[in-house]
Amino acid sequence: MAELHDRSDRFELIAACGSDTLVRLADDLLDGETPVRILQEPKSQLLMQQVREPVERRPFNLGEVLVTTAEVEYAEARGFAMVPGKAEPKAVSGAIVDAAVAANHDETSRICETLADAAADREERRRRQWNESRATTVAFETMEDDE
Amino acid sequence: MGYVAVKAGKDVIRKSEQLFEKGRIEGEEPNVTVEQVESQFGRLVGQVMSEGGLYAPKLAARAIKQAQGDAAEASFLLRAYRSTLERFDETVPADPDRMFATRRVSPAYKDVPGGQILGATKDYTQRLLDFDFDDTDPTEEWELADEKPESLRNVMELLREEGLVADPDAETDEAFDTTRDPVMFPASRDAVLQELARGETGAMTALAYSALRGYGQVHPTLGEVRVGELPVEIEHPYTGDAVEVTSVEVTESESVVPVFAKRDDPQFAFGYGLVFGRNERKAISMTILDASIQLDGDEPAEDAEFVLDTVDGIDSFGFIEHLKLPHYVTFQSILDRVRTIRERRGLTNVERPEGDASTDRSTPEPDATVTDND
Question: Which ranges in chain B belong to alpha helices (H)?
């Protein structure tokens, strides 16, 4: 189970969380009183996906992956998010949520619960996908010689 | 022959474009949504991302809709969009062993550890046109186990344990990037793999097939074919830890090549294939071309320069289709040369009627700029 107060773990949970959920969380945090500063507007960028091929174990560039990044300062704490695809509202919301937890905002425990629920849903989907695949695992029958 | 700029037809060009756009909404059926393309044409989306060199399923689906199903055009749109963006960074190099595989078959090993997982495929059933689609979920009633997902070991590692694969000389972390620097020949293997990974599926299949049809020495056994999700990890800018941003669907294949005429070492040689999306045909073709290029022989598929110069779909589609554009000056020049040669040889040129287009050098109505393309 990921430790939500750990920034690296939190980064992964935010990236995997649904857009609507993150935007709702961020909307609740924007109360008009807590100071917010956008350090980096949400921006679509590229990551070059490198893979270590298994024979010579040397990396090569498979291709680029579209991501959106944003960085904010909220309640005097910095927050950073990178999310898959072209998703500006999700990225900036993720950065606000990240900063809010870093600032130990009153909403921290609710944020952590929501992110944990989203992570559990994702795990469940993957588990189902895995077990569906396992249902297609071949069990070979040896053809015995009749004689 | 130099370039000559002429102008014509701004309005008709616009109307042609509008006529093309009409094709997307024509008919009485509801419009296909981008979401429908993404969820129901997953293989086409994967092919477009792979050939465009950009993993972005939603944008690939949009490009397919915009191109009205033309995969090459959609890949071009994606690659053009990619060229407008800056790069955040490279990812941490992913180890294929960490793939969350939902399909893995090994034609080489019957009892491969983890088992032969067929996954979602119609490889083993008849391929017949279906006149009666059933829109219900046929897996709904399945009674599933409740196992925790696990990683499947790469077949290459099994061979390495037996000493049948040479250990790498030294692990390197630098990868040549063909999107930043031009490929020079002889090309390094990482450059070859990158170019093959974004090659056009049909071109890759044709060239790999040529090797199998006798124009080459590689007829591999596939160690395995896998489909699954590969993690995309970066170093977190605050903590420096490797963190997962997302995962990408990939198809991976490894081929075992028993005969390498130029090698004295009795160990096997290998070809590797890895592509974005579910595209087994392309991944397998990539393994054949990787192995063939390592031979550096005389056959087309063994010539890195020939292969890499022809497999990129954006390059080939652009060059082939540019021939549709005006070549008035080029053709006029060819005509002039042929006529001159014929006259010099005493051959009679048929007198051209008045108003013959090939003699008309007047400038059309000025509107849109058209440039002669050779």
Answer: 10-25, 34-40, 42-52, 57-66, 71-82, 155-161, 189-197, 201-212, 280-295, 304-310, 313-321, 328-344
Distance CA B188, CA B171 (A): 15
Is the ipTM higher than 0.90? The answer is yes
Lowest mean pLDDT among B132-146, B194-208, B360-374: B360-374
Q: Which residues pair with A48 in a beta bridge?
A: A64, B90
* B243 contacts chain A (CB < 8 A): yes
Give whole-number Cα distances, A116 to A16, A25, A74, in Å.
11, 13, 22
Task: Report which of A118, A43, A117, A111 is spatially closest to residue A80, judged by C-alpha positions.
Answer: A43
Residue span of the structural domain in which A89 resides: 7-115
What pLDDT, in 10s, does the model give residues B289-329?
999 999 888 999 999 999 999 999 999 999 999 999 888 88
- pLDDT above 90 covers a percentage of chain B that reads 63
Q: What is the pLDDT of residue B62?
A: 98
Reported as a pLDDT band with limits 50, 70 and 90, residue B361 is very low
Domain membership of residue A136 (yes or no) is: no
Question: Chain B neighbours among A 51-80 (CB < 8 Å)?
Answer: 51-67, 69, 78, 80
* Residue in chain B nearest A44 by alpha carbon: B85
Cβ of residue B34 closer than 8 Å to a chain A Cβ = no
Question: Looking at the complex, does the CB of residue B180 fall below 8 Å from at least one CB of chain A?
Answer: no
Is the residue at A140 inside a domain?
no
Nearest CA to B253 among B278, B287, B230? B287
> Is A40's Cβ below 8 Å from some Cβ in B?
no
Option in B55, B175, B246 nearest A50 (CB): B175
Which residues in chain B (5-24) have CB-CB distances under 8 A to chain A?
none
- Cα B365 versus chain centre, distance: 41
pLDDT of res. B350: 67
Domain count, chain A: 1
A106 within a domain of the structure (yes/no): yes
**Interface probe, candidates B55, B150, B226, B308, chain A, greatest A C-beta count within 10 A:** B55
Between the two ends of chain A, the Cα-to-Cα distance in Å is 57
Confidence at residue B219, expressed as pLDDT on a 0 to 100 scale: 83
For the CA atoms of B23, B29, B30, B34, what is the dihedral angle to 10 degrees? -50
Residue stretches of chain A with pLDDT short of 50: 1, 147
Instruction: Residue B43: name the closest of B82, B71, B77 by CA.
Output: B71
Interface of A with B in 79-138 (CB under 8 A): 80, 82-86, 126-138
